[in-house]
Amino acid sequence: MIYFKDGEYLREEQMNLSVNDRGYAFGDGVYEVIKVYDGVLYTANEHLERLLESAEKIKINLPYTLEQLIKITEELQQQNELSTGHIYLQVTRGVAPRVHQFPDQSVLPVVIGYTVENPRPIEQLESGAAMKSVDDMRWLRCDIKSLNLLGNVLAKQEAIESGCQEALFVREGIVREGSASNVFGIKEGVLYTHPANHFILNGITRRVVLQLASELSLPVVEKEFTLADAYAMDEFFFTSTNAEITPVVTIDGKSVGKGVPGQITRQLQNVFEAKIPVLVAAGQADERNTNGSAS
User: Fold this and answer.
1) What pTM was computed for the model?
2) DSSP assignment of 235-254, as one string?
């Protein structure tokens, strides 16, 4: 594998990461994950713009422009011959003695990147997933895609140990998002999702779904809703770069709607698939409609 680190493309044996990196010591950094379909980067501009925004929010002066970051991700894809998977980019505040305050301006950020082969989660997209609600005890700047993910990790593990695929964060009775995803509910033909504020990460796939809803003339309401509201939804799904649009069939063991992926969720999946450069996508969508698996 070829990695990127601070302007160089290196093999694994050439990589050298310091224990004094503030990302290691404090989680002092930000990251992005960019999906690649059939060798083509998907929504790379949006992801890399958010990386720059996240860095700015925690006062890291990223030494690359958007255009340079795009070239780095394209080069990683090409050198690693990545077909379907993702590119991970991480920025930390740099290498410096372990003190809590920022180092002086002579310390430069550390930027690394690498690729991961990762097939589409077809089975989960077809069958749906189970979610488990957990208390949201994270910090209050969830809008920053930071390296501080311990709360997300613990929530995800709790969900997995309960036989579920994803955790559903609930803070003060309000559904916020998943441990690694945004969430949407559908009730009586209206799409509901949490507003994009500091309680959630404004996911790139979340934004894509809102655009798809507009194209389908699907009414959208961005407002807070409760866990009880989530239980009562006709359909529910979560979104992320790797999960795409994943139907949710149970929450806390309670069936959502009929307990199978719903018709509107299927419509959104089909439109999403039609927009990604995957040759098999249209065939999968046609097969789903032919088999009548949408309910």
Assistant:
1) 0.91
2) EEEEEETTTEEEEEEEETTE
145 among known catalytic residues:
yes
Structure tokens at 241: 């770069």
- Reported as a single tens digit per residue, the pLDDT across 144-196 is 999 999 999 999 999 999 999 999 999 999 999 999 999 999 999 999 999 99
Cβ-proximal residues to 285 (8 Å cutoff; 6+ apart), any chain: 269, 270, 273, 274
Reported as a single tens digit per residue, the pLDDT across 208-232 is 999 999 999 999 999 999 999 999 9
Residues 209/239, Cβ–Cβ less than 8 Å: yes
Place of tokens 């929450």: 251
- Residue 209's beta-bridge partner residues? none
Nearest to 274 by CA among 285, 261, 259, 288: 285
- Long-range Cβ contact pairs of 42-49 (< 8 A, separation 24 or more): 42/276, 42/277, 43/204, 43/205, 43/208, 44/70, 44/73, 45/70, 46/204, 46/207, 47/204, 47/241, 48/73, 48/89
234 within 8 A of 257, measured Cβ to Cβ: yes
**Active-site pick, 71, 145, 156, 187:** 145
CB atoms within 10 A of CB 227: 15
Instruction: With both helix axes pointing from N to C terminus, report the angle between 44-57 and 204-215 in degrees, rounded to the nearest 10.
Output: 130
Distances (CA, A) of 174 to 219, 228, 233, 263: 21, 9, 14, 26
Q: Report how far apart, in Å, the C-alpha atoms of 175 and of each of 149, 208, 251 are.
A: 19, 21, 12
Q: Measured over all CA atoms, what is the biggest interatomic distance in the chain, rounded to whole angstroms?
A: 62
Report how far apart, in Å, the C-alpha atoms of 189 and of each of 1, 215, 216, 270 are.
Answer: 46, 15, 11, 17
Instruction: Quickly list H helices, 192-238.
Output: 204-215, 227-231
Residue 38: how many CB atoms within 10 A of its CB? 13
DSSP secondary structure string for all residues of 91-111: EES-B--S-SSPPPTTSPPEE
